[in-house]
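[job 0412] stage=fold_complex status=start
inputs:
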Amino acid sequence: MPDMGGEVLPGPGTPVGAPEPRSVWRSPFVRTLVGDPWTILGALIVVLFLLMALLAPWLATHEPTRGSIVARLQPPSPEHWFGTDGLGRDLFSRVLYGARLSALIGFLAIVVSGTIGTVLGALAGFYEGWTDTLVGRTVDTLLAFPGILLAILVLAVLGPGIVSVIIAVGIFGVPTYARVVRATVLSVKQFDYVEAAAALGAHTLIILTRHVMRNSWAPIIVLTSLNFGTAVLTASALSFLGVGVQPPSPEWGAIIAEGRQYIRVAPHVTTITGLFIFVTVLGFNLLGDGLRDASDPRTQRR
Amino acid sequence: MKTFIALIAALSLSVGLAQGGTLRILLSSQLTTLEPQDTTDTDSAAVRFQIYNGLVRMTEDGNVVGDLAESWEVSSDGTAYTFTLHDGVKFHDGTALDAAAVVTSFERLLEEDRNTSSTAYFQPIVTGVEVVSDLQVRFHLNEPFAPFLNTLAHAAGHIMSPAGIEQFGETYGQNPVGSGPYRFVEWVRGERLVLERFDDYFAGTPPMERIEYRIVPEASTRVALLETGEADVILRVSPDEANRLRGMSGVELMNTPTARAMFLAINLTRAPFDDVRVRQAINHAVNVRAITDALFGEDVPQLDSPLAPNVFGYVPTLRYDFDPDRALELLADAGFEPGDIAIDLWSPNGRYVQDATVAQAIAQDLDTFGFDVNLRLFGDFSEYIQVAFVEDRGDMMLLGWSPSTLEAEGGLYQVLHGDRANQFANNSGYDNPDVNRLIEEARSETTEEGRLAKYGEAQAIIMNDAPWLFLYPQPVITAHASNVSGVVILPSEHLVVRDTVKD
Amino acid sequence: MYFARRLLEAIPVIIAVTFIVFVSVRLIPGDPARVIAGLEATDATVEAIRADLGLDRPVLLQYVVFLRGLAVGDLGTSYYYGTPVIEEVLRRFPATMELALAGLAISIVVGIGIGVLSAVKRGTWWDRGTLVFAIAGVSMPSFWLALMLIIVFAVDLGWLPAGGYGTWRHLVLPAVTLGLFGAGTIARLTRSSMLEVLRQDYVRTAAAKGLPFRSVLFKHALRNALVPVVTMLGLQLGAFLSRAVVTETVFGWPGIARLTVTAVLDRDFPLIQGSVLWLALVFIAANLFVDVVYAVIDPRIRYA
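[job 0412] stage=fold_complex status=done
writing structure:
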């Protein structure tokens, strides 16, 4: 996971207990966010990507998995805006549907990471001691693997295919979520008013949940944005290595894998698709970075 | 750190010394072993064919000529073959290659409990090998087997050094000792393998000083290396790259039609594929010609027989033209609409030239026709074998079968004889008693015409039964630098660089 | 003492890692015994081979056998190559190390350089530019970058070899592919860390006292700024090796990352286990090394 520098933990500066701003829109968070052009660019890219994914069936000019072999490897033309691939399929439509696939994989993988990570992190933070060590060690174990190898192993066991990819990529992202949640839980537990509320008889779990949510939403959003980019990147790398999503699925990595054999004859397939992966991941990273800057009081514009 | 720098320096130095007399060949996958009796992959063969000799060998045109054997005689009943060896042949370790050595080498292959991929070629037919005199060996067969010479030309018939067997035993594969023009020097796994000229080669001084093989898995990198002059010969060039290289100065292309028939085995044991009309419909529903034209160029014909045209026994029989209307008729006869039939189409990915692309193109055609196609590609060939042939079976499975003996027995028995039904490689489960009988009878035919007749009949029945979706004989494209000549690719796809020279 | 404790803590991790790999590898569909036996082998032969490899015994028992072998340094024999696993692993490892170090060197030099520059010139276009460069480095699919680099530098320009291993020239493109990603991350981290440090009082004091800016920069600021960078390097090793897998594959670099991947694809159990174990060990060693460097750079830690 690309740790972009700077911890993503709710630190002492997290806006809890700070005076509430008059309106959300004027808060330092939002002001920082919209003040940075790169963040806006990132957000724009993400929005475009999601639109591509959602509207693929309507925007596509051809069927993504059907083509005429006679029309293979054609460069971009009025009929095929991005040209065709090795089997005569329209690249533009494939890229669109590929966005859809990447969005799906990214989203579901994050659900997987987030869920498991949150549970693990909460357990570790809440119970501390023994559970904490166990969870810590589990997370360490996962970190001991280079991510791709772990994913390949998982895929070898589960067999290739989109579901397996989602699971493999999801497992990959668990450690970061776990850490954030754990740290939040630990810090929240110490707040006086939590202890007070507990003394008054309120259910600890509910208190914790509410406060954990309140305090960790910022880092979680940042993580989500960054991890989405990583998920897309990892999934495409796996397809590229041949163990991820299978043809004829137009997953971006798979398109590049297929295009690599004629990269000298028809480079448009690899180049264009690679560019899409690059820009999409860039967008998520820019956005994630911007969100991080916006939620950290040290870098906020006040 | 220091040793590592020294290593780098040494490597660079060794590369420098070898210049002018080193042939650099690029391979695509890891070599498994160099033991002749235990391996079937083409890349290992590209090395083995320079290290070993057999009693006989195959030429480019598919003829069998003497290698270690000067001459031979066949007994009148066809069960005894006597070979007279050249005199003065030596192994790389200095020991003599005489009749005793040949016998030792073969006895190892024929050992009772020895079970390698090559034993199937010899164990069932050879009952014994004996020394007749210093330079004469006799093979006894349990019944006349016309393709015997071709079988001996196969890699499994390469002669191993008895002294080497003694010394290395099971690790012979990592320390090969042969009698061929180039001897084994070193093997850095996954990286490179080096052979050096064997000065005492019996058939004359080999032209090159060294042969260096390098493993480069990435196809476009291999081509790039050839273009930049860092490699002399590259194998298995994709047709698209070939198109680009054509006409480029400094590079020459060789297009070899091989004996490998490409097809999709249709699983006859499963309805509705047990109905011959359905299978014929499948054959008519795919535009094989368009696919091969687009991918390989117009020189590659469509198969009109289960055998490739350069295999002995081939008879042009029946071609299934692209005819969707006829396909619909046949289906209707059988009581089906295209939409009623679901097809699980499986294919390896990267095993054969353009296999995945072909499989997808075929799936596209079948899908357009109206079948409900489910494509599955297997990146790992051993997984494919495991799943497609042993554990489960798809409805249609892509395979390329090359009889390395270059004749019809090898091309038909394992893939279409009833004895092998439902085992590798007859995974269509085809079992036609007439075909079985014809194949068996052809073995004991003494004349070529007789054999041709039997095989011809068998092919006619097979084409009609359509147990396969018949595709094309796989073309193999090799590229080499213009200053290299004498590169030979046998129809069995094996590389022979014995006479290769580099200016 | 601190290190001894860390070493001890590493042992359960190694055991957990190897156990997980051991079990998952045996869950992979496919029967190595059959693959080794070959296609024409009879069922009896396959069974014999399976017994030979010990695959017919319960998994836990197999694991114990593995651990025992481990104790004497025997990692088993590769199914595919037929040679001892430890030999294969050690043979390939230097190549990956070479690549990793070269890549790391590029990451550090480029990353820190850019990071420091952008911290110093904060707010200008230079600062913005490096930010984007950094993020771009992380966002680029390494296989795509590798292919593009090969096309431009090896084929079109012919300056560098297109793949393989041997001379320093073969190292350039793969190292750049690998290093670019790290460079971005390090640049970002260095920048933010430097900014943090430059704001500190003691730095301003030093500047006020009239010390030349350069000296302030290197003696005080950089040292402290590097602390989080070093920590991060340790964490990044996993990601680095991940990228190495793709890089080694595309360039045909004979390293251990590629070996592990092909081993998984080949279902070569002993080789998978051996190389994963080795990688885990390397990882732990690297982390310890990072701790040492950490202690050296930041004197505050030593006394903690």
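[job 0412] summary: Chain A touches chain B through 24 residues (CB under 8 Å).
[job 0412] exit 0
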